[in-house]
Amino acid sequence: MDYLDELIEDRKVNDPFFAQVWAAIQLVDELAKRREAMGLSQQEIADRMGVARSRISEIEHHPERVSFARVLSYANSVGAQFAITGPLSTTISTTPSKGRPVVASGAKYRAKASRTKLDD
Question: Taking the complete model, does pTM exceed 0.85, yes or no?
Fold first, then answer.
């Protein structure tokens, strides 16, 4: 394991918000690889989803900025399926007044201002 891998692992353990964003990045990276392996262009996926090609680029390059519903739609467009396994270790809710994600892990609560959309 190189230094970057160690740094990422450390951040995933010590920062629940980073762990969430990293998971989204890895998921979308796998979906993009699947799209490419299928020989599909971003435009073809956009047509399947009924969105502009720029939305597909945004999903692939900035998954932390798009809703999970949009990522699921992308996944459906490339024929991917999801299974939830293991225990849920992090809870996410939205604060009513600010609309920003709040990540709760154990007894620690940390509000995070981000560009991440939880809802479309």
Answer: no
